[in-house]
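Anyone able to model this chain together with zinc ion?
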Amino acid sequence: MHEFSVMSDVMEALKEESLKHSFKGVKEVVLEVGVLTFLAHEQLRFSYKVLSEGTVFDGSELSIEDRPAMIRCESCGYEGEGGFRDEPGFHRVMPTFSCPKCDEPTSVVSGNECIIRRIVADVEE
Ligand SMILES: [Zn+2]
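re: yes, here you go
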C-alpha cells in the first residue's frame, strides 16, 4: 500500500515538528496532496490513524486538501494549471501535459508532492 509508506514519511516529519515545538495536544493536521500523486485520501486517513497511535497525534483530525498540477512550457513560457482529466488510465501512468497555448510538451512544476500545510496544536509554555 503506497499510501502507508507515504504517510510513514509524513508522520516522521510530524514527529520532528512535534519535538521542535513541544506539542502537548494536536487537534488537526492539514496535508496538501498533489493531484498527481494519485494517493487515495481514505487510505491516507487510515494510515494516519494507525501510525499516530500512541503519539501526540493520536486522536487528531487529518484534513486533506488537493494541490493542483502546475505546468511550465519551455517553448512559450506558459505557466499555469495543467489540464488534468480524471481518467482511470491516468492512475497507472504519469500523465504528460501538452501546452494549452503551443501544444509543446511541458514540465510539471508541482502537483506530485505531499506537503504538511498546518498543524493545529497546543504547545508547552
Ligand atoms: Zn507553450
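The chain has one domain: 2-123.
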